[in-house]
Amino acid sequence: MAKQFDVIVIGAGPGGYIAAIRAAQLGLAVACVDAWTSPAGKPAPGGTCTNVGCIPSKALLQSSEHYEQVNHHFADHGITAKGVSLDLAKLIGRKDTVVKQNNDGILFLFKKNKVSFFHGTGSLAAKTDFGWSVKVSGKTDEDLEGRHVIVATGSSARALPGVPFDEELVLSNDGALRIPSVPKKLGIIGAGVIGLEMGSVWRRLGAEVTILEAMPDFLGAVDRDVAKEAQKALVKQGLDIQTGVRIGEVKTSAKGVNVQYTDAAGAEQKLSVNQLIVSIGRVPNTQGLGADVVGLKLDERGFVVVDEDCRSNLTNVWAVGDVVRGPMLAHKAEEEGVAVAERIAGQHGHVNFDTIPWVIYTSPEVAWVGKTEQALKAEGRDYKAGSFPFMANGRARALGDTTGFVKILADAKTDEVLGVHIVGPMASELIAEAVTIMEFRGAAEDIARICHAHPTLSEAVKEAALAVDKRTLNL
Description:
Layout: E1 3-10, H1 14-25, E2 30-34, H2 47-52, H3 54-72, H4 88-112, E3 116-119, E4 121-127, E5 132-137, E6 142-151, E7 155-157, E8 170-171, H5 173-176, E9 185-189, H6 193-204, E10 208-212, H7 224-237, E11 240-242, E12 246-253, E13 256-262, E14 268-273, E15 275-278, E16 282-284, H8 291-294, E17 317-319, H9 330-344, E18 358-360, E19 365-370, H10 373-379, E20 383-389, H11 394-399, E21 405-411, E22 417-424, H12 427-439, H13 444-449, H14 459-468
């Protein structure tokens, strides 16, 4: 007889495992099914984010930043380091340890919250009198039944047409995290989050990095002032960033990868590299889900079709995260997971897409929430803008990291904060204040009147808010 649950979650990435835990907290009987497996053959819940995305990339970014600092910036602090060498295997090993700690942490949370975990591939099998039948295919096959099913199967890297990932020469985000030796020349197609972060990691470790981007503008979705500042800083560090290119033939050989492309001026170019990272977006993981078996509606791109509350076309079948519309962000998936669990329990879960922050963990970091200045201009909305450079911030000077600024956009009449854009040190942490203010529909004046500790980077946010009213105190 099938094991029965109030809720079955297919996928244990940020959306799935959080949905399972929240549903269990609300008193529901919950099962979570996930197929990720560690190199040791053990369950590895956490999805792309934990295993080959957010967590391991941040571990490598931190390690490579230390290497950059000791080789190029310690002298500024009166510290002389000699005989510095790179143990890449140990660096990668530390990343793997961090990943395992997160995997184990999720398994502990399942146990703590009495979530039944099943290691294997979950698929929708049939509608039953109880609810929905879910098949688990793994070392041990299982038959489950759930009154509700939450699909949280995530996404996978999109490959170039005709150029599959082999994870040795042509790399996805997975292969980019475990290159066995620092390549002399590394090519990257796509100047998005993954491309820039991985480019930064390997450039710091000694690779010559060239990034090819099809869009004419660098970071086209980012506020123009911020994008320009970030590009200037990254190019100064040594990244060769080319925009407006058209990729042609890509060939692999024993020597590496050759990329034919047309540059922004229309000239034919050739790039020869040891490895090529392809980061041109992601596709939803819906193959093998059983959508065709039960009639779950997918759109033309393979995403599960849902309404604003994450309900699919099937009664009591929900979907969250990368597998549905909206930004492919771990924290967006988490918020949707919580909201769906609460809706199933009869509460009123809510996700505000207008206050979801975005972050690029390069150096300088880039973070933003809300509208860009170009978007406000396109809408014809009257707004005020204020900015403050980290060059004038005491804590940034003490850190020796003064690149960038904070920019705040507010409604010209009401002063409501419409967007906050940061490029500079710890932007990923500073953006949280902006999200909070915007969630409560606060004004720039609210930020300006709040006492910020001194000396802190957060004072730059306050000063930018003061600048909206043209009354900065330290500039």
